[in-house]
Amino acid sequence: MNFQLLKTPFPKPKKSRKKLIWIVIVGLGCSLFILLYNPFKIAGQAGELYFKALIFSLGVLFSASVLFMEWVFPKAFPKLFENWNIGKALTWYTFVMLFTGTIIFLYKSFLGGFSEFSFLDFLYVFGRVIVISFTVAVAVVGISRLFNQKRISTLISGEDFQIQTADGKSIAINLKDILYVTSDDNYVDIHYLDNESRTKLILRSSLKNIEAQIVNPISPIFRCHRQFLINAGQFRIEKASSRSITLVLKKHSDKIPVSSKFVDTIKRVVH
Fold it and tell me: Is the pTM of this model over 0.70?
């Protein structure tokens, strides 16, 4: 397993009107799904309209549980969300689903008079909560993309990386702003954009150390040469053959060579 990937910066749970709307939409979608299929097998013991309202309320409770975890919990325990990364996000959203499943289980047990209040029934409910929420979320995302054809940026596009240097310093930098990184003996030069203006940051570090921190499967940064890391979105191919490539920085004249062993990768990511 690539444990370095787990340390990749990731968007923190944040409050926004757009996020609120999407959580409500997913919750209502879950309500409709539960109402149509009754996956929890809750038997009706009252009037039909009242029974349907109870079934529908499960999805509403789902939204309320997620909103509580996304809005209230981070505000109550802010330190838990410092230096947020993929590893913490995976743990967090597992906990969110566990919390939501527990609330749904307790509510379902209450509706059923606690006749099936057992660990096995909890697993039954929790499994269905995961399946329903995933199914509805995928459907909602698919429908939304029909109305929004803009290219979805990478999850980490707005997040800063904390780069550790050889002398113990920590530098925060956004990967989307990096143009390229080049080695210079015991130092590296990071060429990047600062408010649309080009600048350079000199760090005491090896290129290999920087690569280990910012190159991963969802990063826009790639190794192309023993002396260079590039932001694939900032370059275009000027010359190419089966064994070599020359890259040129967009809107600038900087040219970067590509070693033969990186040719295939660079051809896939630079256009």
Answer: no
User: For the chain, what is the mean pLDDT?
Assistant: 78
State whether residue 147 is helix, strand or coil: helix
Fill in the DSSP letter of residue 217: T
Looking from the CA of 67 toward its CB, the CA atoms found within 13 Å total 18
Predicted confidence at residue 139, as pLDDT, reads 52
Q: Please list the helix, strand and coil fractions of the chain in percent, rounded to the nearest 5, in that order.
A: 50, 20, 30
The answer to whether the CB of 246 falls within 8 A of the CB of 253 is no
Q: Which residues partner with 96 through β-bridges?
A: none
- Using an 8 Å Cβ cutoff, are 258 and 269 in contact? no
pLDDT in tens, 2-58: 566 677 766 666 667 777 777 777 777 777 776 776 666 655 554 466 667 777 787
Residues 21, 24: Cα–Cα separation, whole Å: 5
Q: What are phi and psi of 42, to 5 degrees?
A: -80, 125
Contacts of residue 250, Cβ cutoff 8 Å, sequence gap at least 6 = 234, 235, 236
Chain segment 120-164, per-residue pLDDT in tens: 878 877 777 777 666 655 554 454 444 443 333 344 555 677 888
Which residues sit opposite 222 in a β-bridge? Answer: 230
Neighbours of 39 (CB within 10 A): 16
Do the Cβ atoms of 223 and 257 come closer than 8 Å? Answer: no
HSE, side-chain direction, 13 A CA sphere, residue 114: 1
